Amino acid sequence: MTRSHFFAHLSRLKLINRWPLMRNVRTENVSEHSLQVAMVAHALAVIKNKKFNGTLNADRVAMLALYHDASEVLTGDLPTPVKYYNAQIAHEYKKIEKIAQQKLIEMLPEELREAYRPLLDEHQHSAEEQSVVKQADALCAYLKCLEELSAGNNEFLLAKSRLEKTLQQRRSPEMDYFVEIFIPSFNLSLDEISQDSPL
After folding, report:
1. Residue 196: pLDDT band by 50, 70, 90 thresholds?
2. In whole angstroms, what is the distance from residue 141 CA to residue 22 CA?
């Protein structure tokens, strides 16, 4: 049986730091970001289904979100100002991501590839699934900005402003619900959020 380096590669996502050009009070890595995006994407899909007559498979959406940045284990996390500096760079980076996704799929044993291809190859995601994952990704980046700003790090002021515009562009009823119900708690201390939910 041939060995596969697939999961050994994915385990290194924890070594790739996000926001590499910015001073961080607390460093965030791609692995923990992916977990948070998966949880938020799942919540958005559940909210869409329960409150707004959606028909998404929330578990599948969570898995797509969990793997949404997996290719960065090969490409690294290119800072947003660089990635989207102009249309040509954004287009070329998309091509690089596609190659990295394919490389990850090829690391898997042949008999497992078709099970993982729909998770790793974003071209196999529906537009609605992609939209929810992108919403969750932007929400989690926004939460990171709130965390840094609440710790007194004004380095994230412009990023917060940029992400507010992104969230407005990706706005949906389920996102509005999430923002109204869950986001305010992120501005509170542990003592404040613990008061309402004692053990």
Report:
1. low
2. 13
How far apart (Å, rounded) are the C-alpha atoms in residues 38 and 185? 19
Give dist(CA 61, CA 54) in Å, integer.
Answer: 13
**Any idea where the domains of the chain sit in the sequence?**
6-187
Task: Check if the beta carbon of residue 45 is closer than 8 Å to that of residue 56.
Answer: yes
Please report how the helices 127-150 and 157-169 are oriented relative to each other, as an axis angle in degrees rounded to 10.
150
CB-CB neighbours of 1 under 10 Å? 4
Residues 6+ apart with CB under 8 A from 77: 16, 17, 18, 20, 30, 69
Domain 6-187 belongs to what architecture? Orthogonal Bundle (1.10)
Burial of 145 (0-12, 13-18, 19+ CB in 10 A): buried
pTM, two decimal places? 0.92
